[in-house]
Write a structure and sequence with these properties.
The complex is a heterodimer. Chain A is an alpha/beta fold. Chain A has 11 helices and 7 strands. Chain A has 3 domains: about 130 residues, NADH:ubiquinone oxidoreductase-like, 20kDa subunit (Rossmann fold, 3-Layer(aba) Sandwich), CATH 3.40.50; about 35 residues, no CATH class; about 100 residues, no CATH class. In chain A, the strands form 2 sheets. A 5-stranded parallel beta sheet of chain A has the order 2-1-3-4-7, sandwiched between helices. The chains are: A alpha/beta, B alpha+beta.
Chain lengths: ~325, ~475
């Protein structure tokens, strides 16, 4: 295949941990196959092409841009907009781009509180009490600048128009390979599609056969509190497993590791708010009578926000903690 | 006329790590600042989370070294709940941790730092990457790098659920036992990793030690700092990754401190500068006396070279042989040459593979008893491991119900932050003169921090290839007088 006929793609990372990039590297020999099929026009973490090279492309010249990570800085927003212009299709790659991901839990707190915790309250800070990083800092030799720290984490589609979604933290290697193949063969589904099976995780869970038809949970327990049977349905064991409310596609990797699903693949189609869906799925298996008993069962789920919205707080209907009135005027980013 | 040079390694995309160099009137370097312009605030948003979720939440600090955070968090949970894992639980943890260390070190040597040596620091930028390495050592080797890595990561995924963001760590043990079938897979992967690490050592000998200019380069003053060193050691003062006692030695090699991870706050402190989001660690016993080396400064270093410096040797035979060769070449006692980190990293790769093989051969590792259930009321827990890039501290306080009320995280690169800043400043002073810097010289400045395999904010790890680089030389009015691009 010659370079002329290969579709061009770009990979870019916003606020992410690098796990999505590692997942691409984990394609291993398959990565060499991908390189056969497509021309990687931009991948700053691995290759030397620059922003100027992207700007020099015609609008729409890239067949696809895979963008991982949530959006937090103005630089990330600019790059996302640039790639949107140059790419025929934009794929939100991974939980953070799709739903905000774990760093999106920062939306529970104000940026000034985060700075205070890290630089003033941390028990190991010593000798420089009170100092905070500053956006403009005068040193003996001149001026140094830092970008502003923003606590409002946004999903990619809160910033630009997104065509496709590849879920997971990180996306499973098989789904990445299928997405690239579909792209090369021109077999992509309708806009807005999630490039993963549209069924609940339970359907591919090796424990599925042990899930009772009418599942009722008398008491919830936390993973550290007792032994976990490696063969039985985790929910039936009283563990908060988000399998029923979460999309398949990972081969039930976490239940395979004998731990409950925490929902990184996001919801199936037509679910607006994954956390609400997960909460409702768990509520539906509660075996409790009367308000007191229900309250007791709910109390067993110690951290509902971190449990049900672990990967999706920025994408949720609430998006973030409501800012106290006194701080409203400082709100920097609207969802 | 004063001038500034800005090295922005990630170009203008996202300032994950940036070097700002100020020149004086004569065009000599006045001061080079290394800035880390990103913060995500994990310490704050983990407040309110369930303690047992910390191994999975904090692994998202870094998708390149998720196992390090996962394991430090898991050990902090042991401490929080005052439980010891049963022998098999502990051994499974260390088995996977060793597999991870071997795989991560291999990645760094062949993809990140190695190209500078194997291909050459002055080689054209487009060759100074993994492809250049493959050209130098052969395509079969390139395939073997991919193959070994795949096998090791496959094993981690099979046991821990996922290689990127594992799920198996629980207070008092692991979520599942190791079947005989998986043990055999582990033994096979370990044997291959041992062979591969021996090969890597050979490749290093041939391409680097065989190069007469190398020794002079590595031991040059531009890359040398006499600081304190920190790392975990076992009871015999051998290098260890998963668990041990923290040992600190001075620039002369004398032991300054020996303490349990739980006592870290007595000895480790962080200094805040207003121009970086990264905090700078120092030894409390010595104090913060600015960016300076020597025994009067509390600046210390972690990571492979530091670990070898604090240890009296390696606990496995082939690694010990390699250590002795290292000591015979660079001298016993602390080696202060930053670039020797690359050699130290391969020696550690040998140890990680051999340790993995030992554990995979241990019949006790398949014992189904892998968890001790906690019963204590949680309050506070501290977990420490040696991450690939150095000592990693996780510290949580919780309420009685095990919800996190405070967390303190000192990531590996932070321990090195002050010394990295020193290295960059010193290399810049030595290499940039008369206000002019060519691309090869700038790479050599960059090498001064690449040797640490830095993971800025643990979010910004650079994968295959090398970092993009733009250098701007500006006069006092901000007018661009020189631009160097490394494309």
């Amino acid at each position: 295949m010659t370079t002329m006929t290969k579709p061009k793609i770009a990979l870019y990372w916003c606020a992410s941990c690098g796990g999505c990039e590692e997942a691409v590297v984990d394609l291993g020999e398959d990565l060499l196959g991908v390189v056969e099929m497509v021309e990687i026009a931009f991948w700053p973490v691995a290759l030397d092409f620059k922003r100027d090279d992207v700007e020099a492309l015609d609008d729409g010249e890239l067949a696809a841009a895979f963008i991982n990570g949530a959006v937090r800085t103005s630089e990330q927003e600019e790059m996302a907009r640039l790639l949107r212009r140059k790419a025929a299709a934009v794929v939100a790659f991974g939980s953070c781009a799709m739903h905000g991901g774990i760093p999106g839990l920062a939306n529970l707190y104000e940026s000034e509180d985060i700075l205070d915790t890290v630089y003033r309250q941390a028990p190991s800070v010593g000798g420089s009490e009170g100092t905070l990083p500053e956006q403009e800092c005068r040193v003996a030799q001149g001026e140094l600048t830092l970008p502003a720290f923003s606590a409002s984490v946004r999903t990619l589609d809160q910033v630009i128009d997104v065509d496709y979604y590849l879920p997971g933290c990180p996306p499973p290697v098989g789904l990445i390979a299928s997405a690239v193949t579909a792209l090369v063969e021109g077999k992509l589904p309708e806009k807005g599609a999630v490039l993963a099976p549209d069924v609940a995780l339970c359907s591919e869970c090796p424990r599925a056969a042990t899930k009772p038809d009418k599942l009722l949970v008398r008491a919830f327990r936390r993973p550290h509190e007792g032994l976990i049977d490696p063969g039985l349905c985790l929910l039936a064991q009283g563990l908060v497993c988000l399998g029923p409310a979460t999309r398949a596609g990972c081969a039930a990797a976490c239940p395979g590791g004998n731990m409950p699903c925490t929902g990184c693949m996001g919801p199936t189609s037509n679910v607006i708010d994954h956390g609400a869906k997960a909460l409702s799925a768990i509520a539906s298996v509660l075996d409790a009578d009367g308000a007191d008993e229900i309250a007791a069962r709910v109390a067993e789920i110690a951290d509902p926000v971190g449990t049900f919205y672990r990967y999706s707080l920025p994408a949720s209907l609430l998006h973030r903690r409501v800012r106290p009135a006194a701080r409203q005027d400082k709100e920097e980013v609207a969802p | 006329m004063s001038r500034e040079i800005l090295i922005d390694p990630m170009t203008r995309l996202e300032g994950h790590g940036r070097i700002h160099i100020f020149l004086d009137d004569d065009g000599a370097v006045d001061r080079a600042y290394l800035q880390v312009p990103e913060l995500r605030g994990f310490e704050k948003f983990v407040q309110g989370r369930r303690a047992e979720d910390m191994p999975q939440i904090t692994s998202r600090i870094c998708g390149v070294c998720p196992m390090a955070h996962h394991m430090a968090a898991t050990k902090a949970l042991d401490d929080l709940y005052q439980v010891e894992p049963p022998p098999a639980g502990r051994k499974i943890r260390e088995l996977l941790y060793s597999a991870f260390m071997a795989e991560d070190h291999a990645l760094h040597f062949f993809f990140l730092g190695g190209p500078d040596f194997i291909v050459g620091p002055d080689a054209p930028a487009q060759q100074r990457n993994i492809l250049g390495v493959v050209d130098a050592v052969g395509l079969e080797i390139g395939k073997e790098v991919i193959g070994v890595r795949k096998q090791l990561r496959g094993l981690v995924a099979a046991v821990a659920g996922k290689a990127i963001h594992p799920v198996f760590g629980l207070p008092g043990g692991v979520s599942r036992g190791l079947s005989e079938e998986l043990r055999q897979q582990a033994a096979a992967a370990a044997a291959r990793a041992v062979d591969f690490s021996q090969f890597a050592l050979g490749a290093f000998r041939q391409t680097v030690l065989g190069n007469p200019g190398y020794a002079e380069f590595v031991t040059s003053e531009a890359y040398t700092h006499r600081t304190y060193y920190m790392g975990l050691v076992d009871a015999a003062n051998k290098v260890t990754f998963y668990d041990g006692t923290i040992r600190v030695v001075g620039p002369g090699g004398k032991e300054l401190l020996r303490f349990a991870g739980q006592d870290y706050l007595d000895h480790v402190a962080e200094h805040v500068e207003p121009w970086s989001y990264m905090k700078f660690c120092f030894l409390k016993d010595i104090g913060w006396h600015g960016f300076a080396d020597g025994s009067a400064s509390g600046v210390y270093s972690v990571a492979p070279l530091a670990r070898l410096n604090v240890a009296d040797g390696m606990a496995t035979p082939r690694a010990q042989d390699a250590y002795e060769e290292f000591a015979a070449t660079l001298g016993s006692g602390p080696v202060h040459h930053t670039l020797a980190n690359h050699w130290a990293r391969i020696i550690e790769m040998v140890y990680a593979a051999e340790r993995m093989a030992e554990l995979a051969a241990d019949p006790e590792i398949t014992d189904p008893q892998v968890r001790t259930l906690p019963s204590a009321v949680p309050r506070e827990g501290i977990g420490v491991v040696e991450a690939p890039r150095g000592t990693l501290f996780h510290h949580y306080r919780t309420d009685g119900g095990g919800l996190v009320t405070a967390a303190n995280l000192i990531v590996a690169t932070q321990n090195n932050a002050a010394r990295i800043a020193l290295s960059v400043d010193k290399a810049a002073r030595a290499l940039i003169q008369n206000g002019r810097a060519d691309e090869g010289l700038l790479n050599q400045v960059e090498m001064s921090f690449r040797a640490y395999d830095p993971c800025f904010g643990c979010s910004t790890h650079s994968l295959p290839g090398h970092m993009a680089l733009i250098v701007e030389v500006r006069d006092a009015d901000g007018t661009l007088v020189q631009e160097i691009r490394r494309d």
